[in-house]
């Protein structure tokens, strides 16, 4: 059995569990160590606790209520059944106390208020039941006990604010069984939540991008997404040798992010297509090729994209982005206005596919779909530079769903990168930046 924590946090939780929402909010730092529902050898747990904490009443009020007001059984439930309910409640009280005392605060308070709401609903149902009970004869005092048991204290106060007596709540026999069910469900909820949290905590590094969360199928029915056929001999591709690596570096080092495009100079769509062909040769997890390239050329569509992006960017810069983030962008002279989205001859929106479909209609899982699509984006940037084109990589925050709907893309596609592509304007200027040296980015072993 797990050992209980005895930290100050546990003491605070135990007290807050005994309070109403109003009391908790008004006195958030007060600590108690009162233990709910602890019985003894001679009395049932809840009854013993209630008797110990029952306020003193006058002789008249004592005679107006029967001695069995706490353990009354007006519905005809047998004493054996009623005693069984009491024992179950005691066990569940101990279980829920143990579970709640060892959970993080956010789980504890979530479970607590769920229990409170359910108990309030139970109280309402008990009230309706008592009014329709022929054995009650309209005498509500028979069914009412003055009880300060911590679990029952969670119920909504039924007395007027001007009364001096403690809040009263119904603890009839049937409600005990219902409370047992509530506690059992609460414990099940807490354990399930903790189990899921534990699973998430034990995930492998990067596993959130592997796409491993799927229903396990029969091993005999599993079929690969790719066709199983013999491998073929490797054929080396073309290269830039001699000194190909240095030549490629000299080519790619001149690439800069451009925010001012020549609207009157437009590259051929065939050049854009060849660049995307090159991007499509990027490696991907299990050769799933989880990418979609959407090329926008029509001015009306580019303007619609620009309006959506600028609308969200104004919110990003004013509220969503941290002040330090906005400050770090200041040397780059970027803001929420994006005129280049309309000026650039082409916009390329890269979507990652979270999953696909096999030719026979089965769901095709896409492993490492974001990493694979990001590699393809690097290939695309190199191809655009080789073609003499300029580009700007943008990742507009919170714009993906709206742009996906604008372009009528399916739900399994998520926007990853938005590229503006074209030729730089004659008066285009770029920030004066220095890239890290080889010694800053290379570690040899």
What are the secondary-structure elements, in order, as H or E?
Answer: HHHHHHHHHEHHHEEEHEHEH
Number of beta-strand segments = 6
Largest sheet at a glance?
Answer: 4 strands, antiparallel
Helix proportion: 40-55%
Mean pLDDT: 75
User: Strand share of the residues?
Assistant: 5-15%
Number of helices: 15
Distance between the termini: 48 Å
Outline:
elongated
Low-confidence stretches: 1-7, 9-22, 24-76, 138-161, 163-174
Q: How would you classify the helix and strand content by structural class?
A: alpha+beta
**What is the alpha-carbon Rg in Å?**
34 Å
- Reading side by side through the largest sheet, how are the strands ordered? 1-2-6-5
Could you list some keywords that capture this structure?
alpha+beta; elongated; 445 residues; two-stranded antiparallel sheet; disordered N terminus; single chain; four-stranded antiparallel beta sheet
């Amino acid at each position: 059995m797990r050992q209980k924590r005895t930290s100050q946090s546990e003491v605070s939780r135990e007290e807050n569990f005994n309070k109403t929402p109003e009391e908790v909010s008004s006195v958030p730092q007060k600590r108690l160590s009162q233990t709910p529902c602890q019985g003894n050898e001679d009395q049932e747990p809840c009854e013993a606790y209630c008797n110990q904490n029952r306020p003193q009443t006058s002789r008249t009020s004592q005679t107006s209520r029967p001695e069995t007001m706490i353990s009354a059984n007006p519905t005809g439930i047998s004493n054996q059944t009623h005693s069984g309910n009491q024992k179950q409640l005691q066990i569940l009280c101990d279980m829920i106390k143990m579970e709640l005392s060892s959970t993080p605060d956010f789980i504890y308070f979530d479970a607590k208020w769920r229990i409170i709401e359910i108990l309030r609903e139970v109280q309402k149902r008990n009230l309706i039941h008592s009014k329709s009970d022929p054995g009650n004869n309209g005498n509500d005092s028979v069914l009412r006990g003055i009880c300060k048991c911590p679990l029952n204290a969670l119920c909504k106060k039924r007395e007027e604010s001007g009364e001096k007596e403690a809040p009263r709540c119904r603890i009839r026999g049937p409600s005990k069984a219902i409370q047992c069910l509530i506690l059992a469900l609460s414990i099940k909820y807490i354990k399930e939540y903790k189990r899921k949290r534990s699973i998430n905590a034990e995930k492998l590094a990067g596993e959130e991008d592997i796409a491993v969360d799927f229903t396990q199928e029969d091993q005999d029915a599993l079929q690969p997404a790719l066709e199983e056929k013999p491998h073929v001999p490797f054929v080396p591709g073309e290269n830039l040798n001699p000194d190909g690596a240095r030549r490629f570096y000299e080519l790619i080092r001149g690439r800069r992010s451009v925010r001012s495009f020549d609207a009157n100079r437009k590259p051929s769509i065939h050049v854009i297509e060849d660049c995307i062909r090159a991007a499509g040769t990027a490696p991907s997890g299990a050769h799933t090729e989880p990418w979609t390239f959407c090329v926008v050329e029509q001015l009306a569509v580019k303007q619609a994209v620009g309006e959506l992006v600028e609308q969200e960017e104004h919110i990003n810069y004013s509220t969503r982005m941290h002040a330090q983030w906005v400050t770090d962008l200041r040397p780059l002279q970027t803001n929420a206005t994006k005129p280049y989205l309309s000026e650039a001859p082409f916009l390329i929106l890269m979507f990652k596919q979270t999953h696909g479909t096999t030719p026979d209609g089965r769901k095709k899982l896409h492993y490492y779909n974001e990493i694979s699509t990001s590699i393809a984006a690097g290939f695309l940037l190199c191809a655009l530079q080789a073609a003499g084109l300029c580009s700007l990589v943008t990742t507009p925050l919170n714009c993906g769903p709206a742009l996906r709907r604008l372009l009528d893309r399916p739900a399994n596609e998520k926007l990853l990168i938005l590229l503006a592509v074209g030729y730089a304007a004659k008066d285009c200027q770029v920030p004066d930046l220095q890239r890290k040296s080889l010694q800053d980015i290379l570690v040899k072993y």
